[in-house]
Specification:
CATH architecture of chain B: 3-Layer(aba) Sandwich
Largest sheet of chain B: 6 strands, mixed
Distance between the termini of chain A: 61 Å
Radius of gyration of chain B: 16 Å
Mean pLDDT of chain A: 95
CATH topology of the largest domain in chain A: Rossmann fold
Shape of chain A: globular
Largest sheet of chain A: 7 strands, mixed
Helix content of chain A: 25-40%
Mean pLDDT of chain B: 91
CATH class of chain B: Alpha Beta
Distance between the termini of chain B: 21 Å
Number of strands of chain A: 22
CATH architecture of the largest domain in chain A: 3-Layer(aba) Sandwich
Strand order of the largest sheet of chain B: 2-3-1-4-5-6
Structural class of chain A: alpha/beta
Strand content of chain B: 15-25%
Strand order of the largest sheet of chain A: 3-2-4-5-7-6-12
Number of domains of chain B: 1
Structural class of chain B: alpha/beta
Oligomer: heterodimer
CATH superfamily of chain B: Pyruvate-ferredoxin oxidoreductase, PFOR, domain III
Number of domains of chain A: 4
CATH topology of chain B: Pyruvate-ferredoxin Oxidoreductase, domain 3
Largest interface: A-B, 60 and 55 residues
Low-confidence stretches of chain A: none
Chain lengths: ~600, ~200
């Protein structure tokens, strides 16, 4: 990355990485999760002088960062919103101990659930732990606020949260780069009353937390991140994060109270602002976090009544809210109405080994307890082969419970990816062994954290920074946990998959099936010889359409019932053979064989 | 031609087509041209063959990173049905640059419920006054590399923004590998040469 003073177009995530560099961070840890992933990727790629690592899950990442902080260094830990649920345990108590070197946790929330299972509002985690948070509204602020967050962390002896959302993380904007500062030159200082949270010490630290909060209440009144923009309007808007940008676009002439530090709130300043305006509206995404706190303080504001609590805001939604509140006269409605249109959901890639597993599970008609990763796409039509998806690692516990109450007449199979199994599936499997579950667990081991872009993990043999690493042996790990039947499966072999799942479900006690084919995209793109459809043999039965392969399309030729015959895009086909295995007329054949037939004819 | 110094550009396509690289180039051209710019897109699930869209906003000062519904000045569609799907984001008097590419998803194949539009570009021309259909796949094939589609479309787009050509060329050079610079410049010029004649409704 370029030199100080230079202006660069950076995403919010790239700006956080740059901020970490400028702030003299020594260690960064994370587990990949949209929309947070690129922070650590950028660090590893552009700032290799900072030690950065993928941890098996967010809890471990947080604990590693805590260790670095107690060791005296500035530490960064990043995660998607639900990742903080996993890391909530160390986070809540580290709020008591406070820091050695500064520690910032970046929480990337996902309003609208572009790539998430819920849209929880993590600002509540700041309040729950009495931890201050800063909320950038563009890339420049993301960088600058991260640096301020380290100063705050060390001055107030507290972890600090940087609260980002998808639109901040994944929007690019012009950023002016700054100089690198060196972080504090500190080492570990033995201080058991501070760092050993036995009840006697923790009671003392809770007092410190309350004192700290009082100091932060003064600080939040003074920080320039909480500022008034006066335009001489009698309408005042209290807002922060990306919502600030939407409001400014819709109504640049209103007065603004821009919240940059969202907890604790500067009630003194806010009270003055409210008193100075005829109408004051709070604009924030998701929960009425600011609105409720301001009301609880005894001030009158409006907000959620007009903006709603669902999904992300947009300039248009904000305009509609202003109109409904009577703050503006009219909203320019789109001139062209939207129409019903075919959906284009994400699908499993051509050649994805997960496809074979889901074809077999669909054939068997069992209940499938699913998990989080690319393979969650097994839920989509026409595969339609997943029945639950709650959180990382939930599949195994879910399947154990289902099986204990005989909830599914056809039996239950848990399906989990390699990275997710390592993240939080191992304890679930131990539960299955310990509590004598008959559950069958399929570990779809494609040796990549594929959904988020193929990041390394303890099963890939590489680290984030590109070094060789020990590779966990999932087969032996499952055996060591006490699973008696652990078997490997080639998921490109459809009949073998059906047979093996059947056998393992019939077997008493827990069993594990590990699929062995790697991801077709990462780390190397797998393209074997493609298959083609022989139109003379294809009878238009549509069996191959139902395996949901993007390489298979309807051709213009039809059978006698007018149903289309299939055609394969040979630039997309990876030669996985699955469609050929289920074609009843053997019309799908290797491209080279097909050409030969043509010639001999 | 967008005559002012502001433009809202929406780029749409299907995961893997190069939408994000195109929006990267356009944004950098705007920044190098001395304007403020923000761009926003959704990563994640969209990588797996789903709809990808990228908002690029250019102006003296840009606030929101996303464009409001109905506020798009220029639409750049890598796939014709996705162009039609995005129509409601556009102003009626905006410009829609649409590749003739059609990618029919598995969910539509053989489905009785879902249908891929027969003539997406024609349907779009009934809604938007200025639709430019670009045989981008055909031009890319003539140039010998299907991955040039996005540079060809950028060439078409450049006719509708008021940045000097050398900024486009320099920015493109900084974004592609050295051995592909020449062919990308050629693709850009082929895009510029695409007739700006409107598709008749």
């Amino acid at each position: 990355m370029a030199e100080p003073g230079i202006r660069e177009l950076l995403s919010g995530n790239e700006a956080v990485a740059r901020g970490a560099y400028e702030a003299g961070v020594k260690l960064a840890a994370s587990y990949p999760g949209t929309p947070s992933t690129e922070i650590l990727e950028t660090l590893a790629e552009r700032f290799p002088s900072i030690y950065s690592q993928w941890s098996p899950n967010e809890k471990v990442a947080f604990e590693v960062a805590i260790g670095a902080s107690i060791g005296g260094a500035r530490a960064l830990v990043t995660m998607k919103h639900v990742g903080l649920n996993v890391a909530a345990d160390p986070y809540m108590t580290f709020a008591y101990t406070g820091v050695g070197g500064g520690l910032v946790v970046v929480s990337c929330d996902d309003p609208e659930m572009h790539s998430s299972q819920n849209e929880q509002d993590n600002r509540f985690y700041a309040r729950m732990a009495q931890v201050p948070f800063l909320a950038p509204s563009d890339s420049q602020e993301a960088k600058d606020m991260l640096i301020t967050a380290y100063e705050m962390s060390e001055i107030f002896d507290t972890p600090v949260m940087l609260h980002m959302t998808t639109r901040i993380s994944h929007s690019k904007a012009v950023v002016e780069l700054g100089e690198r500062v060196s972080g504090p030159d500190k080492r570990f200082i033995k201080d058991q009353k501070k760092y050993v949270m036995i009840p006697a010490h923790a009671r003392l630290r809770h007092v410190v937390v309350e004192d700290r909060l009082e100091k932060l209440r003064h600080f939040t009144e003074e920080t320039p991140y909480n500022r008034v923009e006066n335009n001489g309007s009698d309408i005042g808007i209290i807002t922060g994060g990306v919502s600030y940008q939407y409001c400014k676009e819709v109504a640049p002439d209103f007065d603004y109270f821009k919240i940059g530090m969202g907890y604790p709130l500067p009630f003194g300043k806010i009270e003055q602002f409210i008193k100075a305006h005829k109408r004051v509206m709070v604009v924030e995404e998701l929960e009425p976090f600011y609105e409720d706190m301001i009301r609880a303080y005894g001030m009158k504001v409006e907000g959620k009544k007009f903006t709603g609590t669902l999904g992300e805001l947009s300039p248009y939604r904000v305009a509609l809210a202003f109109k409904e509140a009577g703050l503006i006269d009219k909203v320019e409605a789109p001139e062209i109405s939207s129409e019903e249109f075919f959906p284009r959901p994400p699908v499993l890639c051509p050649g994805c080994p997960h496809r074979g597993a889901f074809m077999a599970l669909k054939k068997l008609g069992v209940a499938v307890a699913g998990d989080i990763g690319c393979y969650t796409l097994g839920v989509t039509e026409p595969l339609n082969a997943m029945d639950t998806c709650i959180c990382m690692g939930a599949s195994i516990g879910n399947a154990i419970g289902m099986e204990k109450v005989q909830g599914s007449k056809t039996g239950t199979v848990a399906v989990i990816g390699d990275s997710t199994f390592i993240h939080s599936g191992i304890t679930g499997l131990l539960d299955a062994v310990y509590n004598k579950s008959n559950v069958t667990v399929m570990i779809l081991d494609n040796r990549a954290t594929a959904m988020t872009g193929g990041q390394q993990h303890p099963g890939t043999g590489k680290t984030l920074m590109g070094e060789d690493a020990a590779r966990v042996d999932l087969f032996k790990l499952c055996q060591a946990l006490g699973v008696e039947s652990v078997r490997e499966l080639d998921a490109y072999d459809y009949d073998a998959a059906v047979a093996m799942i059947k056998e393992e479900m019939a077997r008493p006690g827990p069993s594990v099936i590990i699929t062995t084919r790697p991801c077709v995209l990462m780390p190397v793109r797998i393209m074997d010889e493609p298959y083609v459809v022989d139109m003379e043999l294809c009878n238009g039965c549509s069996a191959c359409f139902r395996i949901s392969c993007p390489a298979i399309a309807a051709s213009h030729e039809t059978n006698k019932h007018g149903h289309p015959k299939a055609v394969i895009d040979d630039t997309m086909c990876t030669g996985c053979t699955l469609c050929a295995q289920i074609c009843p007329t053997e019309a799908i054949i290797l491209k080279s064989h097909f050409v030969k037939t043509e010639v001999t004819r | 031609m967008i005559t002012g110094t502001s433009a809202n550009i929406l780029i749409v396509g299907v995961g893997g087509q190069g939408v994000l690289l195109a929006s990267e180039v356009i944004s950098e051209v705007a920044m190098n041209g001395g304007l403020d710019v923000k761009k926003s897109e959704i990563h994640g699930m969209s990588q797996r063959g789903g709809v990808v869209s990228s908002h690029v906003k250019i102006g003296p000062k840009v606030y929101s990173p996303t464009i409001g519904e109905g506020q798009v000045d220029i639409l750049m569609a890598f796939e014709q049905a996705e162009g039609l799907r995005a129509a409601s984001w556009m102003r009626k008097d905006g410009v829609a640059i649409v590749s003739r590419t059609s990618l029919i998803p598995a969910i539509v194949t053989g489905s009785k419920v879902h249908h891929y539009p027969e003539d997406a570009i024609g349907d779009l021309a009934k809604k938007i006054t200025h639709v430019i259909a670009v045989p981008a796949d055909q031009i890319a094939a003539e140039l010998g590399n299907p991955r040039l589609v996005n540079t060809i479309l950028i060439g078409v787009l450049s006719n509708h923004l008021s940045f000097p050509e050398d900024i486009w060329i320099e920015t493109l050079k900084s974004k592609v590998r050295r051995q592909f610079v020449e062919i990308n410049i050629e693709a850009f010029h082929r895009g510029q040469a695409v007739s700006t004649e409107r598709v008749k409704a």
